[in-house]
Amino acid sequence: MMGLVRILFLVMIVMAVLALVRGIAAPSRPPSRGRPRGPGRGNRATRQGGKLFRDPVCGTYVTAEGSPAAARGRETVYFCSDECLSKFRDSTD
Ligand SMILES: [Zn+2]
User: Fold this and answer.
1) In a domain? residue 69
2) In a domain, 2, yes or no
3) What is the overall mean pLDDT for the chain?
4) Taking the CA of residue 56 as centre, how many other CA atoms within 13 Å lie in the half-sphere pointing to its CB?
5) Does pLDDT of 80 surpass 90?
6) Model's pTM, two decimal places?
7) 39 CA to middle of ligand 1, Å?
8) Is 22 inside a domain boundary?
9) How far is the CA of 89 from the centre of ligand 1 (A)?
10) How far is the CA of 33 from the centre of ligand 1 (A)?
11) Collapsing DSSP states into helix, strand and coil, what is residue 54?
């Protein structure tokens, strides 16, 4: 009876693969859901739950963690990217 067990096992594998392929071909979730709004490209700011700072160059909200920063007077300003940081430096220096 080993042959039958093997066939059943193979059928289960084929069904699992088919289910997987179907899941990849037709994702149930729409791809553009829960996108952060605002100009520029999306960032992880809203997901980390930290305090948000406004990028003074492009207006995107970012968290302090992992964002490029610069001093403006006594406060620290944060940027969405190094590109915005260098634009800010060009405008102040
Ligand atoms: Zn920016």
Assistant:
1) yes
2) no
3) 82
4) 17
5) yes
6) 0.46
7) 9
8) no
9) 13
10) 22
11) strand
State the distance from the centre of ligand 1 to the C-alpha of 80, rounded, in angstroms. Answer: 4
> Cβ distance 24 to 14 under 8 Å?
no
From the CA of 69, how far away is ligand 1's center (Å)? 11
Residue 79 CA, ligand 1 centroid: distance in Å: 5
* Rounded distance from Cα 91 to ligand 1 centre (Å): 14
> Does residue 77 lie in a domain region?
yes
What is the 8-class DSSP label of residue 33? T
Q: Summarize pLDDT for 29-72 with one digit per residue, the tens.
A: 666 655 555 555 555 544 546 789 999 999 999 999 999 999 99
Ligand 1 centroid–CA 56 distance in Å is 7
Beta strands in the chain (DSSP E): 52-54, 61-63, 69-72, 75-78
Count the domains in the chain: 1
In sequence order, the 6+-apart residues with CB closer than 8 A to the CB of 61 are 38, 43, 45, 46, 52, 53, 54, 55
Find the domain containing 58 and state its range: 45-92
Measure 31 CA to ligand 1 centroid, in angstroms.
24
